Amino acid sequence: MPCALKILATARALPPRVVTNAELETLVDTTDQWIAERTGIRERRIAAPEVATSDLAAEALLKACDAAGIEPAALDAIIVGTSTPDTLFPSTACWLQHKLGLRGPAAFDVSAGCSGFLYGLEIAGGLMHGGAKHIAIIGAEVMSRVVNWQDRGTCVLFGDGAGAAILGPGDGRSGVLGSAWGADGNLAKVLCQPAGGTRLPASIETVAAMAHTVHMEGNTVFKHAVTAMSEAAVQAMARAGIRPDQVDLLIPHQANTRIMEAARARTGVPADRLFSIVERHGNMSAATIPVALDEAREQGRIKDGDIIVMTAFGTGFTWAASVLRW
Ligand code: UT7
Fold this sequence. Notes:
The protein is of the alpha/beta class and 326 residues long.
């Protein structure tokens, strides 16, 4: 079966400021050793106060369009996966257009947490079947803006960044071979930003209670992430007709080294195929997979014809996996 879409180019945008575990030791009761052993994270990028999610998204989009040789205005759609939008409305995708003075391409956000980029890929596949030719998917987050910097259980985990991919029609050889996605909203409260929407609008009380920051039951997220990411990857590989030993690179959502390794083991993909950037970036939510994809390409870890498996898990809970032939 010919692939509906392929990735023409990727790019990333990262804030220049690096925050090490040692710097976090001065903020909360933690140690470099605890963070590194429990999560694999050593440093992360943190955006300057004036930088919003659409700023990083716009930079990544321009670089990716340049690499693909496509004018942003010629895109059929711009999809931004994010949990940290500039505003509740309009979408970050529309703020991105505002920043670039762009008019024309359909623009919207996908709210699927860390699965946002792969949800975008799934949606783009449908749009391609409907006749779209070129679509940009961007995973972009400024997680540092919604983190409680007094909570050592969460503030050490996250980072800021954006990754973009430009999609074009499949050429019958390379592209998406198979995918899987799903959600379980019954677990919505386990990982959420409680206040700021219609359930709990912003008030003096919600601000005092730090209810606009990330609330997470880490252990529960951990267990579900391993199960959902491995099951989605196995399902997508089965649909693509790909065996685990045929996978050249596995790019899981980059939340925690232990989660990634446990999920990899369950998929049967050999250990040397796992690609990780979490050491240098922390958990950038929807941005982790496109940034990892871009870094893997830059490092020469992806060659034409390679089989790439991407799998993600996030707030919702949501999950998604995709198998590509490059
Ligand atoms: O993208 C999806 C979103 N998030 C994730 O995927 C994260 C999923 N969860 C995790 O990665 C892990 O659950 C964490 C890294 C968040 C926590 O690791 P854990 O092995 O599950 O540790 P824990 O929560 O069971 O905490 C163990 C201990 C606790 O102390 P006590 O109660 O045993 O005395 C915590 O208070 O570690 C303590 N602790 C810390 N200690 C030093 C929690 N955070 C820290 C910290 N530094 N930063």
